[in-house]
Specification:
DUF6477, 4 helices, mainly alpha
Amino acid sequence: MTAIPNVIVFRSRPPRTGLRRPGALIRAAREGQAGWRRERDLPRLLRAERCPAPGVVLPRLRAEEAIVNEARIERAADYDIRRHVLLMIAILAEMRAAVAMAPQPAATRPGRASSARISAPGTAIPAHP
């Protein structure tokens, strides 16, 4: 008789690349969203003459924020909390803009199943499409 181990193998998760920052910093950035004007504030923050295209600037913002955050962690004398909050406001705003620009899946009519075919035996249609 062959023994089958009762082990489930899961794929390892990729390392987290999300922003883990102090709650006060995140709250300040969320509150600052109301006053954020991309065309006015982003060029000033990036020290650029004009506003870059949406979606292009996010990696640069994250890189600059990482540098400022490292200064915060090291308690450097040149740490600028105002710039850090502005960078976080810009990152949140750019992430929201990227989500808004992302193509949305085709909407299905209420009460009808999606047009995807189910080919595997034993698969079920989701309860809430």
